[in-house]
Amino acid sequence: MKPVAIFRHTSREGPGYITRFLDKRQIPWEVIAVDAGDAVPQDASAYSGLVFMGGPMSVNDDLPWIPEVLAVIRDAFAKDIPLLGHCLGGQLISKALGATVSRNPVKEIGWGEVRVSDNDIARSWFGDNRKFAAFHWHGETFTLPQGAIHLLSGVYCANQAYAIGKHLAMQCHVEMTAEMIAVWCAAGADEVESDSASPAVQSQEEIQQQTKDNLPRLNSVAEQLYGHWILGLSA
Predict the structure, then answer these.
(1) CA separation (Å) from 28 to 19, 138, 191, 197?
(2) In whole angstroms, how far apart are CA 159 and each of 49, 148, 165, 183?
(3) Which of 34, 115, 142, 187 is 20 to 30 A from 136 via CA?
(4) What is the rounded distance in angstroms from the CA atom of residue 173 to the CA atom of residue 53?
(5) Average pLDDT for 13-37
(6) What are phi and psi of 139, to 5 degrees?
């Protein structure tokens, strides 16, 4: 099988739980570290699927690699090679497919409930899950591209996930591990403090307290989502 390409945009926001998932199933993968200067491939057909992780930048920033990433997303979409986006990754997929990425009404940081949409496509992705606590760290949001089916919503962000066929884009983070949460909290302490007035921003203490209860369920949701996504991987 061709490897799954995992695009990393900052060293702190690596693949997390998805590599554990792929390793257990002996699915090959490789990280394309855009933040470290790795070249963005022009042809998606070298990979069985493309995964895009998060990052603190905006898809609307004037960064040299963003047009290259948008181009390979469009190439994969045209070739029906599965796309999977987490937070910034979901926004990149959205912009590449003609949707708009703009400021969310409030910043979301920490644990927050999301609800699964009442449609058959959402149930095929999420199984028996109807709501769960997702992890959030974002200030922007996307609209839905043409042909997208809404999958998840939250109180502070209406578009938390959508699917187009075998492609999945998420605003929230399902890839989290305990180690990632600890690193993000340490690195983002100033951001948490400066945005503490937002009703959707938790303190570091609240995040850590809720991680013990929420993370196992989030890992279970990730298993369900990734399990459905790999059904579309090309040989």
Answers:
(1) 9, 30, 36, 43
(2) 23, 11, 17, 26
(3) 34
(4) 9
(5) 97
(6) -125, 0
Residue 162 has, within 13 A of its CA and on its CB side, a CA count of: 20
pLDDT grade for 9, boundaries at 50, 70 and 90: very high
DSSP 230: G
**Burial grade of 25 (CB within 10 A; 0-12, 13-18, 19 or more):** exposed
Q: Are 181 and 207 in contact, with CB atoms under 8 Å apart? A: yes
CATH architecture under which domain 4-232 falls: 3-Layer(aba) Sandwich (3.40)
* CB-based burial label for 118 (10 Å; 0-12, 13-18, 19+): exposed
Residue-range domain boundaries for the chain: 4-232
Q: Which residues pair with 153 in a beta bridge?
A: 115
Beta-bridge mates of residue 101:
142
Instruction: Return the structure tokens found at 58.
Output: 């905006």
Q: How far is CA 181 from the centre of its chain?
A: 15
Measured in Å, how far apart are the chain's first and last C-alpha atoms? 5
pLDDT of residue 235: 73
Q: Are the C-beta atoms of residues 203 and 192 closer than 8 Å to each other?
A: yes
3-state secondary structure labels for all residues of 125-170:
HHCCCCEEEEEEEEEEEECCCCCCEEEEEECCCCCCEEEECCEEEE
**pLDDT tens track for 79-101:** 999 999 999 999 999 999 999 99
Sign of CA dihedral 157, 22, 210, 8: negative
Residue 63 has, within 13 A of its CA and on its CB side, a CA count of 17
